[in-house]
Amino acid sequence: MRKLPSLPQESKSLPTTTKTVYPVLKYKIHVVTPMFGGGVQAGMIDTKNPIRSSAIRGQLRFWWRATRGAAFQNAYDLRKREIEIFGDTEHPSPIKIWVENVMNRIPKSYTLQKGTRPPYPAYLFQQKKGQTISYLENNYFVLCLQITDLRRDQKEQDLYKELQNDINAALWAWINFGGIGSRTRRGCGSLYCSSFSPKPTINSEDLLIAWIKEKLDDFHCPLHDADPEKEWPTLSLKFKSTSYTKEISNTKGNGIWRDTIEVYRRFRQKKVSSDNPQGRSAWVEPDVLRKLTGMKEEDHKHPYPKSKSKDLVAFPRVQFGMPIITHFRQEFDLPPRIFFSDQGEPYDTQLVPKDKNRLSSPVILKSIAVGPKQGFGVIIVLHQPQIEEVELSIIEPVVNNNTQYQHLKTVKSKLRKVRIREREIYPKVSEHPTINYLENPMNGYSSAIEAFLNSEEVKEFCQHPNNRKS
């Protein structure tokens, strides 16, 4: 993601201010799914200060850009207005933000163990082997905001109203589409606030969509499906929702949030459905990595299914965010020498954006709460700049001798020559006729996100349980 530009020194000189203190606005906010991380140290919960005002300010900046910020034609003008609202190192923000009455500061913890079911989706606990992961649940806090001074560049009441629109749009989007802590794009730390969340009377997909569009109009957010890509992420109207509300989560880890994560997992990890005793992936990437590294076990010598071309090189799943780490299962009954040879499965690999180490997913999976316990399951898509190039590398294994080292060196040399650009990231049927092989999850789309939104898994997810096929 491109970094928004800094403004030239002369353009930062803003009008002088006059102190005008407005009432303190207070909002009680429930955290309706478990919160992970959120402390000063990445991935850790700060028991003294689990809900930090600086983190909330950062979230409000992001969601303001994603909603009201969509009206700006370039990053320069966006940044100029953002400074007027949220301030920068040289100009204080006219908005004070602080947190009061945090209900729960005592985290729970869990260590992922084989054969046991974690309390929430397993990927949340898949860190280093044996590492204990902490999280907070059943929490709420009071968010306080106050406008303390306004600039003299227009009538005070007009400026106050405009600032309110900016802040309310950011609050509304953050509470309904964002969250607090880490993994918010996968539904952790989802929020409910009676002032900004839909009312319990919003109980169908049609009513939810109408409510979202109404709020976007109220906050003067110029969003539509065909928005041109900006230099920053913006909210789109491409989203899917369940047609009903359901319990968000419970002590057994079930609920609409887990359902939402599960539909995404099923699509991302889709396997060939017929005559597939080894559980081969329906996606193209595993066989592409075997082709590029020249490494494959005998059972995986040919692409699967057979209609998949040997010459096809594509990595569409990077559209869902990076890094992507691919780990190949090894047949441990084979001789150890096989693991560092062309007769073994590929080394673990990593895909990252060129010259960067990560790219946030444009797909948000979460619950939109209509109360502290009930909500919709939703899949939301952000518009963001198209990926131009991706780098493929090997995650260094432990090498025991010179033969292994030489083989690893040879494979790394092969991958350094691989260029993964838009043609491989967004494989078009016209350029890759063989992309339409049997059971390809892309289903004729060049966009993996469009393929996901139009997949059978999502269609079933959106239907009421009473209308689903048995």
Uncertain regions spanning at least 5 consecutive residues: 8-17
- Strand proportion, as a percent range, falls in 15-25%
- Radius of gyration (Å): 24 Å
> Please, how many helices?
10
Question: Top keywords for this entry?
Answer:
single chain; 470 residues; four-stranded antiparallel sheet; 18% strand
Describe the structure.
This protein has 10 helices and 17 strands. With 470 residues, the protein is an alpha+beta fold. Mean pLDDT is 87; it is low at 8-17. A 4-stranded antiparallel β-sheet has the order 4-7-2-9, with helices on one face. Strands 10, 11, 14 and 15 form a 4-stranded antiparallel β-sheet that branches. The protein has helices at residues 53-66, 75-86, 156-177, 205-218, 256-268, 285-293, 402-416, 422-425, 448-453, 456-462; strands spanning 17-19, 25-31, 35-36, 95-100, 108-111, 132-136, 139-147, 149-151, 191-192, 234-241, 246-247, 324-326, 349-353, 363-369, 374-383, 389-394, 420-421.
Question: What's a quick, concise take on this entry?
Answer:
By secondary structure, the chain is an alpha+beta fold. It is built from ten helices and 17 strands.
What is the topology?
Layout: E1 17-19, E2 25-31, E3 35-36, H1 53-66, H2 75-86, E4 95-100, E5 108-111, E6 132-136, E7 139-147, E8 149-151, H3 156-177, E9 191-192, H4 205-218, E10 234-241, E11 246-247, H5 256-268, H6 285-293, E12 324-326, E13 349-353, E14 363-369, E15 374-383, E16 389-394, H7 402-416, E17 420-421, H8 422-425, H9 448-453, H10 456-462
Antiparallel strand pairs: 1-8, 2-7, 2-9, 3-6, 4-7, 5-6, 10-15, 11-15, 12-13, 13-16, 14-15, 16-17
